[in-house]
Specification:
Elements lengths: L2 E8 L3 H11 L7 E4 L6 E7 L5 H13 L7 E5 L10 E3 L3 E3 L8 E3 L13 H13 L5 E5 L5 H8 L3 E6 L2 H13 L6 E8 L17 E3 L5 E7 L2 H6 L1 H7 E13 L3 H9 L4 E8 L2 E7 L1
């Protein structure tokens, strides 16, 4: 039986958007992601058995092409799928998206969903690299805005205990699925919740949040990890300070370099000191300590 092959080249930033946009049209098939040829970071390929969803997919992904994040979606009729040549994608020294190949590798298995955090976006990569540096067994950690659950899974696989929260029900469901797929249920608790006055800020993309629990900040955590917009972190800065113990740390990402000065000044006034920093292109991840 003939298949419709769809393919495009994409930037690192585009991968999460591709996954999310395909989920909006209920595409549940395999997404093959391989290393791309310069200037593109990845080549993406997937298949349809018929044309039922083709127009929806073309419309959903067209915005990425218009903004320069991908090439134009190409289609072809093929007799069989091309076997993926994708290798495991290593992040830092130990984390691997896909199958672990070495004894010390830590495999992170995350399925496609509407929630952000595939492991291919620079903000997620930088977060994972800082997590590898700063997470030790036994820490109590808050994953603020857990998205796909990839950071919670990584933290738990390093031996820390995690409370994963998000005000988006889809993200909470995705994180719970990731926790179960990676068998870290004993270390990760997932809640539809916000920290402090975060419940007043609404959905990060303007959607409905429904009934969201509030986590009262009261020196609850040794470490808070947040891969979210800088404006949210600035609004929540006082709650972050109240929630983290002394000594304690923050790992913050999800924003570009132009927000670094304002964020560091805001947190510095509350007693945080910048202690680690990573950058990839314009994207940065920052670690602070009390």
């Amino acid at each position: 039986m003939s298949l419709i092959e769809l393919s495009l080249d994409a930037t690192e930033e585009a991968i999460d958007w591709i996954r999310s946009l395909l989920a909006t049209v209920n595409y549940t098939g395999e997404l093959q992601i391989e290393k791309g040829e310069s200037p593109w970071a990845f080549h993406v390929r997937f298949y349809l058995s018929d044309r039922t969803k083709l127009n929806q997919i073309e419309q959903a992904l067209s915005s990425l092409y218009r903004t320069g994040m991908t090439t134009e979606l190409e289609t072809a009729i093929v007799e069989q799928k091309i076997e993926s040549t994708a290798e495991s994608y290593r992040i830092g020294n130990r984390f691997v998206i896909g199958s672990a190949n070495q004894t010390d590798d830590i495999a992170l298995n995350i399925q496609e969903s509407l929630a952000f955090g595939s492991g291919f976006h620079p903000a997620t990569i930088l977060s994972l690299r800082l997590i590898e540096r700063h997470v030790t067994p036994g820490l109590e950690v808050l994953d603020l805005g857990c998205g796909s659950g990839i950071l919670s899974v990584a933290i738990a696989k390093l031996g820390a205990k995690v409370l994963a929260i998000d005000n988006d029900a889809i993200a909470v469901e995705a994180t719970q699925t990731a926790v179960e797929q990676n068998t870290v249920q004993d270390l990760v608790t997932v809640q539809l919740a916000s920290l402090g006055k975060g419940s007043e800020l609404g959905h990060w993309m303007g959607g409905e949040t429904g009934e969201v629990s509030e986590i009262e900040p009261n020196e609850n955590f040794d470490l808070i990890v947040a891969n979210v917009f800088a404006r949210i972190l600035i609004r929540l800065s006082e709650d972050l300070r109240k929630a983290v113990r002394s000594p304690g740390r923050l790992i913050l990402a999800g924003f570009t370099i132009e927000y670094e000065e304002e964020l560091t000044e805001t947190l510095g006034a509350l007693g945080f000191e910048l202690c680690d920093r990573l950058q990839e292109g314009d994207w940065i991840a920052l670690a602070y300590q009390t």
